[in-house]
Amino acid sequence: MPLKLYFHPLASFCQKVLIALYENDTTFEPRLVDLTDPASNAAFKKIWPIGKFPVLRDEEKDRLVPESTIIIEYLAQHYPGRTQLVPADADLARQARMCDRFYDLHVHVPMQKIITDRLRPAGKNDPHGVEEAKALLRTACDMLNQDMRTKTWAMGDEFSMADCAAAPPLFYANMVMPFGDTHKNVARYLGRLVERPSYARVLKEAQPYLGLVPK
Ligand SMILES: N[C@@H](CCC(=O)N[C@@H](CS)C(=O)NCC(=O)O)C(=O)O
Fold this sequence. Notes:
Number of strands: 4
Shape: globular
Largest sheet: 4 strands, mixed
Bound molecules: glutathione
Distance between the termini: 38 Å
C-alpha cells in the first residue's frame, strides 16, 4: 500500500483529508497519532518535526506531503477518482482553492482557537483572542449564509476540495457557536455534508472520541 496517513480521527484538519480519501475510495494505511502519548508524539515528530497533522507519506514516490490542502491537491493529481476534488477548469480550480482558503482561515482557525482555549491550563486562557475568533467566525458565517442561498455544494453542483474543507470546521463550529437559528443556509449545507457518505463515515469513526471535545 503506497499511501500512509498520519492522523487522528477527531482532528478536524485530518477529517478534511479523510473525506477526500473516502470520496474516491483511495486505499491508504491509517497511522493513528496520539499527541497525548509522548512516544507516539515523538515518533510522529521524527517524521514531521512541526508536529501538526495530517501528513501523507507516499512510499512509492518517496514523498512526504504535509498540509491538508496540499495533500488533497496531491491526491487529485496522483490518485484521481470519481469525485474531481480540484476542478479541471483553471478558473473553477482557482475558485475552489479560494473557498478552501476561506474555510481554513476564516472558519477552521477561529473554531480551533475557541475549542483549544478550553483545553488551556487554568490562568492561561486568552479571552480577547477567543472574542476575536468568535467575531471572525460570525462574519464568515454571515458571508457563507449569503453565498449558500442557492448552492448545493461550495462550488455549486459539484462536490470538491472546498466541501472537504468546509465540513469539519462547520460541524465543530456548530457545536461551540450553534448557528442553526441564525444562519439557516449554512445549517442546511452542514446537513447535506453530514449526509454525504464520505463525511458520514468520518463522523462515525470520530464518534468514540467525540466526548474528548471540551464543552
Ligand atoms: N495548516 C495545517 C493545520 C493542521 C493542524 O492544525 N492540525 C491540528 C489537528 S486538527 C494539529 O495537528 N494540532 C496539534 C498541535 O497543534 O499540536 C493543515 O491544513 O494541515
